[in-house]
Design a protein that fits this description.
- By secondary structure, this protein is mostly helical.
- It is 77% helix and 2% strand.
- A two-stranded antiparallel ribbon has the order 1-2.
- Strand 1 and strand 2 form a beta hairpin.
């Protein structure tokens, strides 16, 4: 088979592989969650708290849909990158973000979804690389910046350790802030940096700051969903939960497991053990997983599958 024909077959094959992974991932996630446990967690959560959680979920979904904006703006500085309709950016951003939670290996799975969708819309490979690079680093920048800030200004918010070693945690917070500060300064002063023998283009200070702000808002809003469904406990503030959530999410993300399952839950449960009994804490964690991971992932899967079927039925279209 000729190389040109192989290249033409690559995008639809990639699309089918991603779609198969989505079906398998969602099936695995749904199998691990008991419907009875969900109903019990809902029954134990007051209506007012659920409404607060749903409002934050709506805000979170909006942020997921604009997550790729800095990367798209960076890609559009290349002359060959077309203008993209807002719905296309929102579709690619939302699907890549939400489905990476159930596919596992989030860096690879989200990159595959972005490549598939943006390639359909005539974005050149160099432009897709910029989108993947910026969108892929958003989370790390936001996570380290938020966690570093919390440890620096409010170390007691981290359970146990914060009460005994605040100085050590402040030092750790300062170290965590260094990469984001170095990135912003480099983006302000240079267009290109050389790293490990390779030249990397930088987006400029505005897009670099937009990455950090967008990711920070995303993580803080996700934590607000979790905080909204937690049973009330004396002395358990949003700052306390945010620090714990950041530590749990970092541990889960580095595990590479879909949604950090097991690792994320264990760290949260351990951190909450001094303020809440295990049963209500587990119920809140389950409800949060359904709201933040499962519902958006199911919606993202439906949107991605619908777009794939539409694309196969109508064929590639040039951007208007």
């Amino acid at each position: 088979m000729k190389p040109q024909r192989l290249l033409r077959l690559l995008p639809p094959v990639l699309g089918l592989l991603v779609l198969s992974g989505i079906v398998i991932g969602l099936h695995g996630a749904l199998r691990k969650i008991s419907f009875g446990d969900i109903l019990a967690a809902l029954d134990a959560t007051p209506l007012r708290q659920m409404l607060h959680a749903l409002v934050f979920l709506l805000i979170s979904g909006t942020i997921m849909a604009i997550y790729d904006l800095p990367g798209v703006r960076f890609a559009q500085r290349l002359p060959a990158t077309p203008r993209l309709a807002p719905w296309r950016i929102g579709l690619a951003s939302f699907c890549a973000y939400t489905l990476s939670h159930v596919l596992g290996a989030p860096a690879l799975s989200s990159a595959a979804i972005r490549f598939r969708l943006y390639a359909q819309w005539r974005v050149p490979t160099a432009g897709i690389a910029r989108i993947v690079a910026l969108s892929g680093t958003n989370f790390s920048l936001g996570l380290t910046s938020l966690l570093g800030t919390m440890l620096l200004v409010h170390p007691p918010s981290l359970p146990s350790l914060g009460q005994h070693a605040p100085g050590l945690l402040r030092a750790a917070g300062s170290l965590l802030l260094l990469p984001a500060c170095a990135y912003v300064l480099a983006a302000r002063r240079r267009d290109v940096v050389r790293l490990f023998g390779h030249e990397l283009s930088l987006p400029g200070i505005r897009l670099a700051l937009a990455q950090i702000i967008l990711s920070g808002a995303d993580i803080a809003t996700a934590c607000a969903i979790f905080y909204a469904v937690l049973p009330s406990a004396p002395g358990l503030s949003y700052a306390d939960v945010l620090s714990l959530y950041l530590a749990a999410f970092a541990a889960g993300a580095f595990s590479g497991l879909p949604g950090g399952v097991g690792v994320f839950d264990s760290v949260l449960l351990l951190g909450l053990s001094t303020d809440l009994p295990a049963a209500p804490a587990l119920g809140a964690i389950l409800l949060f997983r359904v709201l933040y991971f499962l519902i958006p992932a199911c919606l993202g899967g439906i949107l991605y599958a619908g777009h794939e079927f539409w694309a196969h039925a109508h064929g590639p279209k040039d951007e208007a």
